[in-house]
């Protein structure tokens, strides 16, 4: 009888808390038409400085015709996971091509960029293993680590001394319990070019640490694939490191390759394991073949025109220089990184006010024909929340005049809004 | 094992339980291997169900269970033998090995973890990951693949096996097609939009196509608003953590899909599992949860969410929605329904289990589904009341960090949905749904008559056929391929170790001839491999069947 009363009395919370009507994410920008170089946002035509279309392949005719041919042959969807008749010859071809391009033994494709790293990490690192990860790692890595239930040790962003200190501590722990140490796997997870800060990671020092402390390295190259290196092979080519020294490289195809999905590449010893234990691979439908065909064509273009990478880097340097010295805003990111952040030099006190101020800068620019966006984060879920910033993306299609126009417009906007 | 004892029941009290076995559930509970006999569901709650709800989960005779275990034991012994020979160099190692420079690192894989993969899965792995080179319609072309070294590596001969009947792809309504007229709008949109989006929903990735699609999905389902995501798996794993958190309780069905389990784990809430489709178990859990509160502090739970699927893909069973909704209303819990396989596949006009049971979409709090199965595209959606969708637009992990759906794929979904709703001016949509229903019933009836053990609800287009023994898995798949029919077989760990099965997915695009070809092949193969375990083959007198159901009210 008492139980009935308790059941009657219990009141749950509402399923979702109410969201204020003026929450910035509810008033999002609607883009009409394709998000290419000239983009129509909320009805206004602007030059696109906000989509990660680094090599300008979103509007490329060859890519589109390859996708059309695939559409005629295969239809749209694959109607099944890879294990049950969802493997098409285009998938196998794309995996081969990616492996050849990156000069590794094997590659594996996922149908969603976020799911790539979020499924790759839990496939190798289980409960009881130790992962050293940079503070500025992106959200997908954080979710992968959470799903793996391993011990996470954060080290300060790009601070090799801090990482070495943590590794030494781990070594002393190991000596106390050698039997356990022999079965605990250790990993370092870093990004090539960090999405949250635009910095590059010091890979040569990491390799030295790897062999000294016997840790495996997982490298996430979403921003650096197709950007760094002489042929666009990413940060390993940039630093001239033997690619077999990195245990696993993941990247998503949504930035440079202008398709959808992601891939992991490395030695067969490592990649083959994911075919049975990568959750996003085994339990999810495979990539639609037209997107795979588009990615193959994009790879062809990348291989045939290796000079676009140099052009892209030159443009990045140009705008990086042009944006220095804006009063009130500081540029965060390497000079050759195509995705920069502009942060407020002095915060106004609360994050909300900072966000509102930056929004006014962005609106000013949008009204004058440059499409920018603020970097969005989930404030409560991130481990180390980066400060609010405006994201500036450089693509190969932007001309020098447009770059200069963007820089001067940002100067004007900062002047009028922040002073 | 308790298995033999329950099967004994079937043997000794043959006549009395004969009718019961057919109609009530006697599932082998995966958790503790004990079958709790027959639960009388669905009959006493007859008023909630507007049409008859018939599910079958027959058990096989005891010798089958014995032989299955023997088969696995033999495989394991040989596995140890081969591992031993490989370790001592008597046999060649064919798998990839660790780098020389990294030999003194902690090994990446434990030897024992891979035992099953190396020794049992590897022997028959040519039955999975078969590459195809045409559209996955009712028939497709397979690439011929041979192995020279017992499945360690494969080699493509360059030939294709043409016109293999496809009983494995999730093509329920037949929208995986390459007909030029059907794909006209998709071709136009591909030319206009290209293939990528390169941005997230909250930044610069919301295209007008997404807005159009979301409005259409909301209209199709009869709810206020909807939101679409780029991947079905990710829809679950990224939105469940946004909706529930610490201090909440998730009650999830035993046989839920990996994406639901992953989403529940990532959310940090407490998870309790109830037996598959078993309403008593669910009710007990609900009562205990409300009465006793959280485990150590005994504080009240913040909210309780029930996670179920519309059709369970490995069992072919349909969720008991009316009972769950009445429980949910009584105990003030929330319901999250994953209609990955059921949207488009069941219901009079293809609107899923909600329509199948004649209920209103307002009864379910969160309607989730994927577009991969019935619409021939990719991606997922969540639909419901406007405040729910607004919350997801602001707080979903996918909206902030993951790329939005490709616009060409969105167009395919739009045209498929318009066809289903009849908005394109033809009656093709309804025709497809009716054809699927007819095909499902015909296929299942024939398989029952032949004497195979089939699991699941009579109306579900997912048809699992039980094989049990590990040796038969490979034999079945290979011989069906020789007859030009492509089937999907599943074993451990996707199913319980003793219940390996072949799973057929009936499609609206299958013609009667194709189904007859498959049925004849199954008949032959069933006799050859002794697969017709059913002791209660349904006779061609359905009236008797209906009568005996009413007799059970004791």
Would you write up a description of this structure?
The complex is a heterodimer of chains A (419) and B (554). Chain A is built from 15 helices and 16 strands. By secondary structure, chain A is an alpha/beta fold. A seven-stranded mixed sheet of chain A has the order 5-11-10-9-8-6-7, with helices on both faces. In chain A, strands 1-2-3-14 form a four-stranded mixed sheet. A four-stranded antiparallel sheet of chain A has the order 12-13-16-15, with helices on one face. With 554 residues, chain B is of the alpha/beta class. Helices cover 40% and strands 14% of the residues of chain B. Chain B has 18 helices and 16 strands. In chain B, strand 6, helix 8 and strand 7 form a beta-alpha-beta unit. The two termini of chain B are 31 Å apart.
Beta strands of chain B, count: 16
What is the helical fraction of chain A, as a range of percent?
A: 40-55%
Q: CATH topology of the largest domain in chain A, which one?
A: Aspartate Aminotransferase, domain 2
> Given the structure, what is the number of helices of chain A?
15
Mean pLDDT of chain B: 81
Total discrete domains of chain B: 2
The helix/strand class of chain A is alpha/beta
| Main sheet summary of chain A | 7 strands, mixed
Shape of chain A: globular
| Fourth-tier CATH superfamily name of the largest domain in chain A | Type I PLP-dependent aspartate aminotransferase-like (Major domain)
Question: What about the largest sheet of chain B?
Answer: 7 strands, mixed
Count of β-strands of chain A: 16
Please report the two chains with the greatest interface, counting residues with C-beta closer than 8 angstroms to the partner's C-beta.
A-B, 117 and 118 residues
**Secondary-structure class of chain B:** alpha/beta
Model regions low in confidence, pLDDT < 50 over at least 5 residues of chain A: none
